[in-house]
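Problem: given the chain below (328 residues), write out its structure.
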Amino acid sequence: MTEHFQFAQPEWLYALPFILCLIILRRRRGAEGSITYPTVRFIASLAHTPQSLAGKMGALCFVLASAAIAIALARPQHVEDKTFRTVNGIDIMIAFDLSYSMETPDMVLNRMPINRLVAAKHVITQFVDGRPDDRIGIVGFAGKTKSFCPLTLDHALVNSIIRDFHPRMIQADGTAIGSAIAAAATRLDDRKDTKSKIIILVTDGASNSGQISPLVAAENAAKLGIKIYTIAVGTEEGTLANGMVVQSEFDEPTLRKIAQLTGGEHFRATNMASFNKAFTSIGKLEKSEAKVQTVRHIEEYFMYFLATGAALTLLGLSLQALKPAPAP
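Solution.
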């Protein structure tokens, strides 16, 4: 909400300097006249004629009344703008791979080697910060699945949970992609009033655990109107922390099929640039609809100045009526 004071027709205020000039001119003494009186009798009569205070005050009232009327014509206003924002947000569940292979240090950030987990946390927290109008939840998975955060608009909480992620948070070897999709889809299906629901699946391996097939889970998600975006993170080969070189077990055909079945897309993130590009693309594809409406309330003050001008005019006329008549 914003407030300010304004004049609707400020051009009338240009009359005020001229009115001020009238006040100044009335206070100045004119040129002194020179009259020769034949006798002192006339001087004595003038000395007993008092100056008319009522006449001076009456004239001043007329000047002030003119100023008040000029301000009234300028229409002083108090303006209050209230903005109402209606947002049709998106519900987003992020399925986050927390398997041990996510410790593979084959990514680079600021010229420093980092592992896949650190890279994913960096990119995803930035993505969360860029979606202020969307509800976001987190599901983590390795050999089994764990729900870490329900759908919420408290993005500070979401990012706090993501920053604390480490592979040993789920004590089960393997990669249960099907179970992760099913858990995320269940969370999304709990909210019936949201039109757009998506799952972002971030993984570096092939599904080898869980009781539900990734493709069956994807088909069920599609029936619920949920789109899945899959991101395969990491290079084909990566060096683990203990120095061993391993072959990454990507199953990109399955990840592509998951995205295809649900109307989503598949991305491959082999470095930080492609990782960021994947989330940027998802952000462009899934946009929240926001409508902004501004209601303006205007309170007019001209009537107060108009009433003041009328009162001063009446007062001036009354004082002029009390002005003594000039001596004969």
